[in-house]
Amino acid sequence: MARVILVWALAPCLALSGCGGPSNPEGQSLTDWQRDLDGASPEGRRRAVEALQRVGLRAIPMFVVALGSADPAVRASAARALGRIGPMAVETVPALAHVVAHDPDRDVRVAAAETLGRMGDIARDAGPALTHTLADSDADVRSSAALALGRIGASEPAAVSRLVETLSDPQPDVRASAATALGQLGPDARAAVPALREALSDSRPLVRMLAEDALRRIDADD
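RE: above sequence
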């Protein structure tokens, strides 16, 4: 992914924490670690990501840059690191949404979806990207996107409709994730009730159990 696609997301992060200057793990500055993220050595890039994880909030801009690395391992590690920071990394939601919908590597897309889910409802702006990702060619990506939609509270009709469609996914783990997400949405997912009732006859016990739980959650306010 070209770094230029993500650079616009750096502005709020830079306002939060600044870059360069002070020493950090192993005696290097953030600027030094950014240089290492661009380095030719895979080991050097790995060490840079690991070191930046110990920096905390000040490393957020570097992780956004790393989401545009040519190395998919670095991109995935950066997405996971942002997940560990959690809601404090809200400025990165647009960049993560782009990654989850467009990164060519499935591990990176999974990591981005999981991170958005960890952020909770402050990541609701990523709902359209996660909804789009329910059509991903990889089952793990679809499953991660479904779970994230539930965790961020994506109750828009388009999201609920696609989750309903996902209840018919050929992969049982994906169907289970869709049922889980609809349950997390509660009464806002009332349009999913007919499909969830059909899912009570799913061939997999876990899907049936999660569909039943979702129906209880949706009807909880009645």
